[in-house]
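Researcher: I'm preparing a figure for a lab meeting and need a structural model of a single chain. I don't have an experimental structure, so a prediction will have to do for now. The sequence is pasted below. Please return the structure as tokens so I can convert it later.
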Amino acid sequence: MSKGWLTPSEQRRLGRELAALLPLGKTYHVGSSVLVEPGQTPRDVDLRMLLDDDVHAALTTAQWRILGDHIGRSLEVSTGVARIDFQIQSVTEANRDHPGPRSALFVRDYGATS
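Model: Understood. Here is the structure written out token by token.
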């Protein structure tokens, strides 16, 4: 099993784009493209933004799905990373339903001066 399907450059590009969303929540690379089996090609890149439960409760599941789809398409265009499955989940939901490995896609707020 190899580590990560995204190249370091793709990870940095995604991190820079996602930095603008840090005030809302942190985004993680999850699923089959995090730990890739030899000879396998992941179907897509799974990204999950985790929100505090009270923030997530502000909108319906359908509304979060629409926002996630738009963010995913925008990330595909702005980073050149194809086939992004971007979803927005509450922290409780993510921890309960998806205990697998996560790889953070944010290093810092790229707009910060320090």
